[in-house]
From TrEMBL:
Residues 204-263 form the Protein FecR C-terminal domain. One of its GO terms (molecular function) is sigma factor antagonist activity. Pfam families: FecR (PF04773), FecR_C (PF16344). Gene3D superfamilies: 2.60.120.1440, 3.55.50.30. PROSITE patterns: PROKAR_LIPOPROTEIN (PS51257). InterPro entries: FecR, FecR_C, Ferrdict_sens_TM. This is Ferric-dicitrate binding protein FerR, regulates iron transport through sigma-19.
């Protein structure tokens, strides 16, 4: 089936790929911070005031920086912008998931989280680094980017330079930062704001929604008799609109609260 939203709204996080790292029994993929801890204050420069932007549950939040660079904030994400941004300084602090389309300039642009630091002149990339989670990723869409750990590592502090199709997979619990590859088309799909669900049962759908919308999804009741969604496409749809449509097909009720969606069969 095909579903089109009546409104053009922004939705968070994208499901570029399911990244699973089997190191010491650790597996991490999507996002699930119901309400991530905001520790950006520890990364701020003393004496400088910051403007804080926060993502909205079930929607994307677009932030335009003073130099016209654009940031798409995922739900539950926090971006701090210093008052001296653009005055020989293009540095922001991220706790969460965001896509950056950076305006070219002679001044470097830097995104710092509790785990990673990304530096560019002008390019497009996506960083996911919640303070409440050990895993973090950076996906480069085009241009070049230099990524390093934002903390001092006792083993390896060397930065990595990424080109299109390359990404960083990091985990501060095991002090890991590795360069990997991914399919840029998946990020481009996210940017087009077109969510496709194919041959998915309720459990698979919950994972898709967690990745795409940056929310925690809890299922209650017996979902075993719910029909499989064979083909559903959502254009510029909010989480509310997607759940309303899927609920009619799979016969469930839902509630959205505090960056969490509860589905009841």
């Amino acid at each position: 089936m095909l579903f089109k939203s009546d409104t053009i709204s922004c939705t968070p996080s994208w499901k570029p790929m399911l990244v699973v790292l089997l190191t010491g029994g650790i597996a991490f993929s999507s996002c699930k911070p119901a309400e991530p801890a905001h520790n950006n204050a520890t990364l701020q420069t003393p004496g400088i005031k910051y403007t804080t932007h926060k993502g909205v549950t079930g929607q994307r939040t677009v932030v335009t920086l003073p130099d016209s660079s654009q940031v798409i904030l995922n739900a539950a994400s926090v971006l701090d912008v210093p008052e001296n941004y653009g005055q020989g300084n293009r540095s922001v602090i991220l706790d969460g998931d965001a896509f950056f389309n950076v305006t070219p300039s002679s001044d470097t642009f830097t995104v710092t989280s509790d785990k990673l630091r990304a530096t560019v002149l002008g390019t497009a990339f996506k960083m996911r680094s919640f303070a409440s989670q050990h895993g973090a990723t950076v996906y480069l869409l085009h241009g070049k980017i230099r990524v390093s750990k934002s903390y001092h590592s006792p083993t390896d502090n060397q930065p990595e330079v990424l080109e299109r199709g390359q990404m960083i997979l990091a985990n501060n619990e095991i002090d890991l930062m590795e360069k990997e590859t991914y399919h840029p088309e998946e990020l481009e799909t996210w940017l087009s704001d077109t969510l496709t669900i194919s041959n998915a049962n309720p459990m698979a759908i919950s994972r898709v929604l967690e990745d795409w919308f940056g929310v925690e999804v809890e299922m209650k009741g017996d979902a075993s008799k719910a029909p499989v969604i064979t083909d559903a496409r959502f254009f510029h749809a909010t989480l509310e609109e997607v759940l309303r449509n899927l609920g009619e097909q799979q016969h469930f009720k839902y509630k959205i609260s505090n960056n969490k969606a509860t589905i009841t069969f």
